[in-house]
Amino acid sequence: MGVGQRVAIRPKIAARLADPERLFELSTAKAWGYGIEEWEALPDEKRDELLEYERQICPRCGNLRSVCSNPDVPWYPQRSMCYATGARELTLRRLHKKHKDPGTDAMAPTDGMTVWMSRDDLSPDDEFV
Ligand SMILES: [Zn+2]
Hints:
With 129 residues, the protein is mostly helical. Helices cover 46% and strands 0% of the residues. It has 2 domains: 11-68, no CATH class; 79-120, no CATH class.
């Protein structure tokens, strides 16, 4: 199927997708990497546990929603260090310094570029930084 082509959605499927509970269930199955058949083959207890996880765990902080939404709970900043992420962020700053922002009339050399870190120099001839 090409871009812009659409397949008519059967009314029965559209009605099922309009059901918020069904949509939530499908979103949960997708989030956990299950296809529909796999999801529906899970024991009820397992499906319920995953649905409850999605309902009760905050996707932003990973804590129980009942805890992180309580304004009386104290929170303390913690720190960990990831030098791969630090090296990536340094690379991105260098790239943005090297290439001026072309504004909205043209693409920047960094538009669409993904920078990731490797412990091996996989492209020693690519001096993009
Ligand atoms: Zn939260």
